[in-house]
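Exercise: predict the fold of this chain.
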Amino acid sequence: MEPIKVLDKTFEEFIPGQQIKETVARMAAELDRDLWGKDPLFLAILNGAFMFAGDLFQQIQMPSRISFVKMASYLGTGSTGKVDQLIGLQESIAGQTVVILEDIIDSGLTITKLLEHLKSLQPADVKVVSLLFKPDAFKGNFHIDYLGMEIPNDFVVGYGLDYNGYGRNYRDIYKLKAE
C-alpha cells in the first residue's frame, strides 16, 4: 500500500485492516467468555478508541452497556506528560464491573489517571482492554487484562489514532515513516 500524508508527516502501512478486524473479533470472544453474566459497563476513552470500541461492542454478545469518557495527553506526536479529564463519567459505577476500552497504551498515564478516578467510585471490578500496547514506552503500574497487539514505540495513525486530530479515518494503522 502507498504511504499516506497526514498534515506535514508521511506514514507507511503498519497493521492492515483485516488483521485489526481479526484481533478485535478475538478480543470480543475473550470478553464474552470471561465476563458473561457480570453485566459489564464498557467505558470507551475518546477520541481515539471510538472505532475500536464501536467494532468491539458490535461483536459483544453478552448483555452490556457502553459509555464514554474523554481524556487527553497528546500534542502533536508526543505525550504532554499531563493527563486532563475533559468529559467525566455521568453514571454510578458502584458495585459494577467496568471495562475500560483504549485504542493504545504507551506511557500509561491516561489509564493510570482514569483507574485512580474509577477506584474512588467503588466498582466491583475494573478491567483494562487495549487494542495496542507499546511496552518500550510504558511507565504505568497496572495490568492490561485484554490486549490486542504489542507494537514498537513508533508513532501511529489510523483506526481512530490521530496526528493533531487528523488521520483517524483510515481502516489500516500506519506508522510514521523514517525520514
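Check your answer against the key: Helices lie at 17-35, 50-59, 109-119.
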